[in-house]
């Protein structure tokens, strides 16, 4: 069975020779030769991990599809942007949107040895900023999507894996305009106004996802953002209001074009799991074990039955910090508790973000492959 066949049969709920293993963000496409200062993957530490992902893992390769407008800012002609480096070499970006007589500013920072973009200042800081943002004119409908990158990636991947098309949901697009505390306050105190923002992004996403899923039918998608409305951030009734209705419709569009959808939600999912199931998604990740999450994998499998493929249950902090003998026990538990139902893909919740890896990270990735190959579910 090829790695592609193994993944596609898992998505369809069919029998496979062993549980697939994904390294999540590490999919074998990372550029180890690019000398860019901010490319952590040119470190010698990363090369054997990336080679292992390419040669042995069941590759699920991430791809974003652009249309004429979708990756642009809300109204390009109203935006100014400046970029600079400080004395330490960190890269800063400051964007300003002029809307409703106000200046909405976002400032980000990227450090040389950490593969993360830090948002130090968010565009929207209060209800008046939100009103100003909503006064911006809507973006033009999307044009024909450029699928050349996706087709090229699929050719490169061959039988070693599959693509996963990435999209935020309306809640993610809205919440990330605010700091976390401001988002939670406004979502509760200005719910109707906040929902106007969700509706704006929902209308854009319907057009975008329809266009892309028609151009690339039958592929796997990942929708991220639902965790913003899960406890402890918001109560379950707001999850249904902010996530279930919108994401369910987006999933329905993808299904109409023969695709599959994996919903991404870190952290606590126990109290919203039934609402996630109700979206009719095909997969769920990363199902973090307690204490990072709040529900055991075996309970998730029982509640999902044969409706959803389960992805994950290995915590990224364990991958990075556990000695291999300890991590192997966690792998075995995940395999035993996750296999069955519609299907299970062994996967960490994330990956290390530093340029330098701890000595046991590579052996822990190797253990994921080895124990899955040995497992007889």
Can you describe what's shown?
- The chain is an alpha/beta fold and 377 residues long.
- It has two domains: 306 residues, Alpha-Beta Barrel (TIM Barrel), CATH 3.20.20; 50 residues.
- Helix content is 39%, strand content 18%.
- The strands form two sheets. A seven-stranded parallel β-sheet has the order 1-6-7-8-9-10-11.
- Helix 7 runs parallel beside helix 8.
- The radius of gyration is 21 Å and the shape is globular.
- About 2% of the residues have low confidence.
How would you describe this structure in keywords?
alpha/beta, globular, 39% helix, 2 domains, 13 helices, TIM Barrel, four-stranded antiparallel beta sheet, 377 residues
- Low-confidence blocks of residues: 69-74
What is the makeup of the main sheet?
A: 7 strands, parallel
CATH architecture assignment of the largest domain: Alpha-Beta Barrel
- Give the beta-strand count: 11
Radius of gyration: 21 Å
| Overall 3D form | globular
Largest beta sheet: strand ordering: 1-6-7-8-9-10-11
Number of domains: 2
Number of helices, where a helix is a run of at least 4 consecutive DSSP H or I residues: 13
- CATH C-level class of the largest domain: Alpha Beta
Secondary-structure element pattern, one letter each: HHEEEEEHHEHHHEHEHEHEHHEH
Helix % is 25-40%
Query: Terminal Cα separation, in Å?
Result: 16 Å
Strand percent estimate: 15-25%
- Summarize model confidence as the mean pLDDT: 94
Annotated CATH topology of the largest domain:
TIM Barrel
Structural class assignment = alpha/beta
């Amino acid at each position: 069975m090829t790695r592609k066949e193994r993944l596609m049969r898992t998505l369809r709920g069919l029998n496979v020779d062993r549980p697939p293993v994904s390294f999540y963000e590490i999919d074998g496409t990372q550029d180890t030769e690019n000398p860019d200062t901010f490319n952590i993957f040119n470190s010698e530490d990363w090369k054997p991990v990336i080679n292992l992902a390419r040669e042995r893992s069941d590759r699920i390769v991430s791809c974003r599809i652009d249309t004429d407008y979708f990756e642009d800012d809300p109204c390009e002609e109203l935006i100014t942007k400046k970029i600079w480096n400080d004395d330490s070499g960190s890269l800063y970006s400051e964007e300003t949107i002029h809307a409703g007589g106000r200046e909405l500013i976002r400032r980000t920072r990227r450090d040389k040895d950490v593969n993360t973009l830090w948002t130090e200042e968010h565009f929207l800081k209060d209800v008046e900023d939100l009103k100003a943002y909503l006064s911006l004119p809507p973006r033009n409908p999307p044009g024909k999507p450029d699928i050349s990158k996706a087709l090229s990636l699929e050719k490169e991947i061959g039988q070693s894996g599959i693509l996963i098309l990435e999209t935020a949901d309306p809640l993610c697009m809205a919440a990330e305009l605010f700091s976390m505390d401001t988002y939670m306050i406004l979502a509760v105190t200005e719910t109707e106004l906040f929902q106007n923002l969700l509706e704006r992004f929902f209308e854009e996403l319907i057009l975008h996802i329809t266009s892309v899923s028609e151009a690339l039918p039958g592929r796997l998608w990942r929708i991220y953002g639902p965790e913003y409305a899960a406890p402890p951030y918001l109560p379950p009734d707001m999850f249904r209001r902010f996530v279930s209705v919108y994401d369910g419709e987006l999933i329905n569009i993808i299904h109409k074009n023969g695709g599959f959808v994996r919903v991404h939600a870190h952290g606590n999912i126990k109290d919203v799991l039934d609402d996630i199931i109700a979206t009719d998604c095909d997969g769920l990740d990363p199902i973090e074990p307690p204490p990072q999450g709040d529900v055991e994998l075996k309970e998730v499998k029982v509640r999902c039955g044969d409706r959803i493929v389960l992805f994950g249950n290995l915590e990224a902090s364990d991958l990075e910090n556990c000695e291999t003998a300890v991590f192997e026990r966690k792998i075995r538990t995940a395999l035993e508790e996750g296999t069955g139902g519609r299907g299970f893909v062994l996967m960490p919740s994330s990956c290390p973000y530093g340029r330098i890896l701890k000595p046991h990270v590579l052996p822990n990735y190797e253990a994921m492959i080895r124990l899955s190959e040995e497992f007889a579910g």
